[in-house]
Structures are given as C-alpha cells and as structure tokens.
Design goal:
This protein is α+β, with helices and mostly antiparallel strands. 20% of the residues lie in helices and 28% in strands. The protein is built from six helices and 17 strands.
Length: 252
C-alpha cells in the first residue's frame, strides 16, 4: 500500500530506486514516468509518491528491487575451546557455530587463541574489520591474564615499557596487578597492538607464563554482563566509537 494517508512517511520513489542501485536518481525519474515502475503491483508514474522500505514491494520492469542490506556488527563472549575462524579445515569447533547462519559472510575483528575467552567482534563489514586491525591505529585491548607465580614490580614495569619479542619490541602497555593466590597472579594488561599470541609471549618473556587469558575490552566496547557463549549486536554508538578509536590520533 502507498502512503497516501501519511504523506511524510517513507521516502520518495526515485530516491528509493537510486538507493536500490537501479540507476541515478535522474534516470530513475525517467523509469517512473515511462511506466516501468510498480508499487505493490500497481504501476506508478508519479514522481512524488513515497514508499516504505519493508512494507511496499517495488518492481522495475517486473523485477523486485531492494536496498542493499545494512551491515551487522556483533560482540561474542567467546568460550574456551573454539578457534577464531569461520571455516576450519581441521573441523575443530569454530566461533561460527555460536552464530545463527543467515547467509552473511562474517569476518572476525582479529583473533583470540583457542583457549582465550572473552570479547570477540564479528561483522560482515570487511572494511570496518580491516580498519580496526590496522597496526597504524593502535586500538587498545584489555585482558586479564592469570599467570604463574608472582611477577614483581620490576617485571611489570618491563611490560609497561615494552619488551623485545621475536617480531620486535612491544609498544608501552598498561599493567595492573589484581589478586594472587597460591602459585598464580591475575594481572590486567592493556595493549595497543594485535600481534599473534602477544600477551602470552609477553608474560613468557618475563618468566611468568599465562595459565588463563580473558579479553575484557576492545577499544571502547566491553563485555558487560554478556554470558559466555552469548552474542549481542553492537549498539550504533559502539560502532561509531570503535571507528573513532581507529583514527590517526584515536588510540596512539
Ligand atoms: N594475546 C594472546 O596471547 N592471545 C590471545 O588470544 C589474545 C591476545
């Protein structure tokens, strides 16, 4: 049905057609006046008519046209035991199993090791994923690492300054001792790189290897109360804040 009773609802037909990728707005106006466009099976030659996405079915030369789908952005509370790939040649359990399959091709924003738990971002927006992972932007990620023994203040200071790993020195990190028990200490560490097994390698370097690793935050996004194994869509404000954190001066 057209929106004659609510004239401001929806958008102008030619604009909608252009958004669907039919042609330029000007060319779409010509399609309309030529009688090639129907709304809900009724030919519409009027330029001013409005349509509502998801309610009105619009066809051009008898073919239904729809706007491109908006991108999706998710946060997953990854449990241990799942590999961060969407298709594993070795048939191991993957994070893809934790998502409803709706035909979209999802990308993970970086990786967590199989035994690491916590916050993992997934999206079908490849450009967004690449941007957040680009080494130039230094988006921060916070982890709680349970490490063996009790690292001393001087060990933690080394991690803060940066340590020399096989693939080069690490950038300065924030490091905070949380609690310790018999033979272990929990340490919160915030790094602004995403090198492979970086946190584990940093703690091995100071001879306090990681026993358990959990990611709490990725840039401005936190897990909050999301249960292990659960997924939630990111708020629009979170998507915006993530993009802002990946700017030239965002996270340096
Ligand atoms: N650093 C690691 O060592 N492992 C992870 O899974 C993430 C960061």
């Amino acid at each position: 049905m057209m929106s004659s009773d609510a004239p401001r609802e929806g958008e102008r037909l030619q604009k909608y057609l252009a958004r669907c990728g039919v042609a330029s707005r000007r060319a779409c106006e010509e399609y309309i006046t030529a009688g090639r466009v129907s709304i809900n099976d009724v030919v519409s030659t009027e330029l001013g008519v409005r349509v509502v996405e998801g309610r009105d079915v619009v066809t051009v030369d008898g073919v239904v046209v729809t706007p491109p789908r908006e991108h999706v952005y998710y946060v997953l509370h990854k449990p241990a035991g799942y590999v961060t790939t969407l298709d594993d040649p070795e048939s191991r359990a993957t994070v893809a199993e934790l998502f409803p399959q709706d035909g979209r091709r999802l990308f993970t924003v970086g990786r967590l090791d199989r035994d690491t738990t916590g916050l993992l971002l997934l999206t079908d927006d490849g450009e967004f994923a690449n941007r957040l992972m680009h080494p130039r932007y230094h988006v921060s990620k916070s982890y709680v690492a349970r490490v063996t023994g009790t690292p001393g203040e001087s060990d933690l200071a080394r991690l803060r300054r940066g340590v020399e790993l096989d693939d080069g020195p690490t950038r300065p990190a924030e490091v905070e001792r949380l609690v310790n028990g018999a033979g272990w200490t929990d340490v919160r560490i915030t790094i602004s790189e995403g090198r492979k097994r970086q946190v584990r390698r940093m703690f091995s370097h100071i001879h306090h290897p990681v026993m358990r690793l959990h990611r709490e935050c990725f840039g401005p996004v936190t897990l909050g109360t999301l249960a292990e194994g659960a997924v939630r869509p990111l708020e629009e404000s979170e998507v915006r804040a993530l993009l802002e954190s990946a700017t030239d001066d965002g996270g340096a």
